[in-house]
Amino acid sequence: MSCSSSSNIVSTNMSVDIRRIGSKILAIIPLTPADGSYTTESGITGGDVIRYDVSDESAKKYVKSQANALNKAEVIGVVESVSDSSMSVVIFGQIQFPAEKFVDEGTPEGASGGNDIYFLSPTTAGAVTSLAPSEPTQVVKPILQRADDGVNNAIVLNYIGYVIGGEIIADDPEEILTSIIEFVDVGQTLPGNVIKVSDTSKTLNVSDYPDLYAKIGKKFGYTEKITFDSDSTIPSTFVGKRLTQKTGTTTSYNSRVSSVDTVTNSVLVSRGFSAEQVDTTKNILVDNIEYTPSTTEITQFNLPKITRSNSTQITVDGSSTTAKISLAMVVKSDRGVNIPGTVSVDNLTVNKKLTTSTNSASTLTDINNTVNTHETDIANIKTKLGLS
């Protein structure tokens, strides 16, 4: 967000007043909004660094930031003061920071001969420290610079942070899978690991999203593939037919065929929320004729449509516009590692293929195969020359 003389954001579900006052951008945030759209963590005081936690869509909350993990190191600003009804948060610019909350660690450095840059603390939520985090997975994020002008004693920087990758650290995808993300929707292309869910429900292939299916399963409905015994030949005319199973006189299974595959002797049916799959120990009735199922498999599952108040009024210098707010779900988590630029190992085993590429040489797509080919060629040359 950029501003000139003033800037205000007024949302349909957040009564946050953002102002430019002198050399600072200040947000006046109610501790308890009238519409109950969020809460505020207890114990927040002047000098605390805070973020807006939306990880639980039903329990949004202002909480203290901390540099011990990427998702906790987001920062809205630094609290300058707290009243009975609201807190004043400096998003950027000068601040009167509590002197007792300047935590000085390590050897003093900085332009004035002492500590002058303060980072988000990885050990104490909401705090700053003069010593940058140094452990793998911690986040280095400059928050304040000391600059005393007689009224204010620091400047809120809130620079973009980065994750320390001094060791190889595996990511845990389970922490973010199924998370809901709010974004300003201008028709942009979303990353491949998220799907927009606020426009319509979605049907996904289990084979494409196995981790997501492991979490959601049949909760919102699914597509079932039923394969029949070879003695029960399924014709293409089964499309639209109703399949039923009975336990005594009670119907225990009821669905309608959406498609037929005569090659695999199988049908696809759509099932509702958490509905049970067919019982392969019982015959299926179609037009009062019995057919014997052999296997059942879930091939697709559904994501629900998730909605909320989807417009936010944005006012900049007196001009208003309406932005559409949409929701997306994290549906894939790329399993990977953070690797430093230089790695030294005693032994390295590659089980499949090692590919290299440099600015000064062509890409080698399989080093092992290339070396083996060269060794064979050299052995052949030695044989021809009588050297072996």
Q: What is the CA–CA distance across the termini?
A: 73 Å
Oligomer classification: single chain
**Quick one: overall form?**
flat
Strand content: 35-45%
Q: Helix content range of the residues, please?
A: under 10%
On the 0 to 100 scale, the average pLDDT is: 83
Unreliably modeled segments:
1-14
Give the number of domains: 4
Q: Compute the number of helices.
A: 2
Report the sheet with the most strands, covering strand number, pairing sense and barrel closure: 12 strands, mixed
Describe the model.
7% of the residues lie in helices and 39% in strands. The protein has 388 residues and is mainly beta. It has four domains: 7-164, no CATH class; 173-203 and 312-330, no CATH class; 210-303; 345-385, no CATH class. The strands form seven sheets. Strands 2, 3, 4, 5, 6, 7, 8, 9, 10, 11, 13 and 14 form a twelve-stranded mixed sheet that branches. The protein is flat.
List keywords for this structure.
388 residues; mainly beta; twelve-stranded mixed beta sheet; six-stranded antiparallel beta sheet; 39% strand; disordered N terminus
Topology, pairings included?
Elements lengths: L6 E5 L5 E5 L2 E7 L8 E2 L8 E5 L7 E4 L12 E6 L3 E10 L6 E2 L13 E4 L7 E2 L9 E2 L1 E5 L7 E3 L5 E2 L5 E2 L9 E5 L9 E3 L5 E4 L4 H7 L5 E7 L13 E6 L2 E12 L4 E6 L12 E3 L2 E3 L1 E11 L7 E6 L2 E12 L6 E2 L17 E3 L2 E4 L2 H19 L3
Parallel strand pairs: 4-6, 9-11
Antiparallel strand pairs: 1-27, 2-3, 3-8, 5-6, 5-7, 7-8, 8-14, 10-11, 10-13, 12-15, 13-14, 16-29, 17-28, 18-28, 19-26, 20-23, 20-26, 21-22, 22-23, 24-25, 27-28, 30-31
